[in-house]
């Protein structure tokens, strides 16, 4: 299952989350060709923390630095892009609720706790642990409690057929956590620090419960979002019109996009399953106008198909 986006729109500009994504990508590009001993120095190597000699050799500053630097290192393109995709989907909403400064501390704290979880359960390992997975897992754990009823647009590739589903966040994240636990306890350790993922996820949940953020009312934040663009990938739930063959839905765009015209990718959902289509919005369109996409409705007994009618809404 590959998450593509969620249905919750952030009310503030996710400046911290976006900055973290940029830093991770920048660091990855700078370190992609460095020799393995670099990761021994800046990655999290559990054996370094359980050996007195290692503390004397590396020094306190280097030991503490590695507890933070390891979460900004990645071992390959799939590793970094997978982590950043999850951070992009879930992080902006968590930052929205926590506020910018507290979210940064939460992210770093979640990464450190995830690293310590791996360290405690693998004290003699000399393999460096790297990646933002643990910190991202903390974000996912927080999202699990803050937005359980949100929907996650999920790509499920069935051989060569891409299938799209809207899965409730508590189901998607619950299954993700279960998979981490089964891999951690089933002897399928391999190169992945499963316990770091579990530790990060639990930290995210405990943090939300301990701080009472879930019950706190939303407060205005700094960096209020001035939206010039709506999501490029949108989820649209359609209904059947009175004729029984045309499908009807709503497409959200901003005034700037309405003025200039825009191209959107739209997942049209009906009965829990979706299909991806391309929608071209012409420049100068007004709110309330309808776009007619011919042949994208329901099949007619006479052989032709109905249309998809999308009503333009300004956001």
Please tell me about this protein's structure.
There is one protein chain. The protein has eleven helices and ten strands. Helix 6 (77-98) runs parallel beside helix 8 (133-146), helix 8 runs parallel beside helix 10 and helix 9 packs across helix 10 (194-211). The two termini are 30 Å apart. The chain is elongated. The strands form two sheets. Strands 1-2-3-8-7-4 form a six-stranded mixed sheet. Strands 5-6-10-9 form a four-stranded mixed sheet. It has helices at residues 15-31, 37-42, 46-49, 52-58, 60-69, 77-98, 100-121, 133-146, 169-185, 194-211, 255-260, and strands at 2-6, 151-158, 161-168, 233-237, 239-240, 247-253, 262-270, 273-281, 290-293, 308-314. It is of the alpha+beta class.
CATH superfamily of the largest domain: Rhomboid-like
Q: How many independent structural domains?
A: 2
Number of helices: 11
Q: How are strands sequenced across the largest beta sheet?
A: 1-2-3-8-7-4
CATH class of the largest domain: Mainly Alpha
Order of helices and strands: EHHHHHHHHEEHHEEEHEEEE
Mean pLDDT: 87
Low-confidence stretches: none
| Name given to the CATH architecture of the largest domain | Up-down Bundle
- CATH topology (level 3) name of the largest domain: Rhomboid-like fold
């Amino acid at each position: 299952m590959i998450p593509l986006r969620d249905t919750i729109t952030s009310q503030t500009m996710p400046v911290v989350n976006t900055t973290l994504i940029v830093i991770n990508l920048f660091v990855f590009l700078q370190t992609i060709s460095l020799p393995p001993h670099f990761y021994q120095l800046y990655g999290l190597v559990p054996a370094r923390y359980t050996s007195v000699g290692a503390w004397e050799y590396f020094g306190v500053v280097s030991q503490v630095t590695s507890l933070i630097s390891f979460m900004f290192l990645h071992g390959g393109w799939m590793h970094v892009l997978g982590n950043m995709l999850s951070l992009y989907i879930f992080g902006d909403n968590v930052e929205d609720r926590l506020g910018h400064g507290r979210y940064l501390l939460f992210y770093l704290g979640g990464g450190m706790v995830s690293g310590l979880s791996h360290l405690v359960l693998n004290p003699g390992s000399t393999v460096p642990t790297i990646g933002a997975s643990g910190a991202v897992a903390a974000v996912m754990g927080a999202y699990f409690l803050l937005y359980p009823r949100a929907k996650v647009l999920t790509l499920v590739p069935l051989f060569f057929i891409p299938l799209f589903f809207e899965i409730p966040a508590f189901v998607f994240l619950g299954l993700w956590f279960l998979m981490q636990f089964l891999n951690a306890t089933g002897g399928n350790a391999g190169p992945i620090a499963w316990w770091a993922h579990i530790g990060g996820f639990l930290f995210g949940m405990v943090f939300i419960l301990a701080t009472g953020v879930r019950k706190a009312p939303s407060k205005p934040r700094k960096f209020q979002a001035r939206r010039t663009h709506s999501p490029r990938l949108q989820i649209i739930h359609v209904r059947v019109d009175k004729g029984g063959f045309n499908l009807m839905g709503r497409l959200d765009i901003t005034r700037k996009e309405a003025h200039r015209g825009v191209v959107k990718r739209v997942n049209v959902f009906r009965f829990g399953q979706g299909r991806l289509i391309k929608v071209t919005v012409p420049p100068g369109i007004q709110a309330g106008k309808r776009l007619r996409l011919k042949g994208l409705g329901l099949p007619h007994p006479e052989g032709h198909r109905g249309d998809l009618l999308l009503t333009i809404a300004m956001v």
